[in-house]
Design a protein that fits this description.
This protein is an alpha/beta fold and 257 residues long. It has helices at 14-24, 45-51, 74-92, 113-129, 141-150, 162-168, 174-178, 207-216, 237-255, and strands at residues 2-5, 28-32, 55-60, 97-100, 132-136, 156-161, 182-186, 223-225. It has a single domain (2-255), classed as TIM Barrel (Alpha-Beta Barrel). Helix content is 41%, strand content 15%. Strands 7-6-5-4-3-2-1-8 form an eight-stranded parallel beta sheet. Helix 3 (74-92) runs parallel beside helix 4 (113-129) and helix 8 packs across helix 9 (237-255). The two termini are 15 Å apart.
Length: 257
């Protein structure tokens, strides 16, 4: 199955985005779960995507203010409530998985018991609603290690963002550490200097090795692109999606080679 993030960089009505994604050949979409990116009512998006015949692989939860998760303040409780609501929304809209950040920036607050307890509350809600939570690798992979090392739940796992690894933690073998808990992929490329979300094969990632490593984990989920059109301004939305689909097919071929 081939999927793509529903905000791929063009300012289009959501109905048009989903039509184009399906027309390009993708089987499904990953949805941004918030009122950003031209989505005035994100909860209206699941039926719109399904109307176009798209499978909804997961949602990406909001992360503005995510560092408050580790602080004893009102913002931390607000962030926890937002993420708990995302669990409920996944259950309501029959979306199996949500992708979640644990920190932001270069200097997040230290991870601690308070934040861990909040993540455990979210994990308990996920278990109760039969929803999975995929924690994404970011700049500070120690937060991922802390959460996965202290929460033993079949509903808490790993979202492998290979672009983040390439530019933030290239020497970390994250699949060796968390491959058995792999629940989602974010596939995009960069030149190693920053998080550019380029199309695969337009950066420095060794995709043969990367997809081979994913295959060794026995991961059966979608080949999922998280790309945007920065640097591809000469392509129309339709053209960008056509190229993205061809790149996704190449990745799928490497994965099953």
């Amino acid at each position: 199955m081939l999927t793509i993030y529903d905000w791929f960089g063009y300012d289009l009505p959501v109905t048009e985005r989903y039509r184009m994604i399906k027309q390009a050949g993708f089987d499904g979409a990953v949805l941004w779960w918030g009122n950003d990116y031209g989505q005035s009512d994100y909860r209206a998006c699941p039926p719109l995507a399904r109307r176009e015949g798209l499978f909804i692989e997961n949602i990406h939860t909001p992360f503005n203010g995510i560092n408050d998760l580790w602080l004893n303040n009102l913002g931390g409780e607000v962030m926890t409530d937002i993420l708990l609501q995302c669990v409920t929304d996944c259950a309501t809209f029959e979306i199996p998985t949500m992708v979640m950040h644990l920190s932001s920036g270069e200097t997040p607050p230290p991870f601690n018991g308070l934040g861990l307890d909040r993540v455990k509350r979210i994990a308990e809600a996920a278990e109760n609603h039969s929803v999975s939570i995929a924690l994404e690798n970011l700049r500070k992979v120690e937060y991922l290690a802390f959460a996965l090392g202290n929460i033993d739940s079949p509903r808490i796992g790993f979202c492998y963002d290979i672009g983040h690894r390439n530019c933030r933690n290239p020497n970390e073998d994250l699949l060796a550490l968390y491959g058995p808990r792999l629940m989602a992929l974010h596939l995009h490329d960069n030149d190693g200097s920053g998080d550019q979300h380029r199309l695969p094969f337009d950066g420095t990632i060794d995709w043969q090795a990367a997809m081979g490593a994913i295959a060794k984990e026995g991961y059966s989920g979608a080949t999922a692109l998280e790309v945007v059109n920065l640097g591809y301004e000469d392509l129309s939305a339709e053209g960008f999606l056509r190229v993205a689909f061809e790149r996704a097919k190449r990745l799928k071929g490497l994965r099953w080679a």
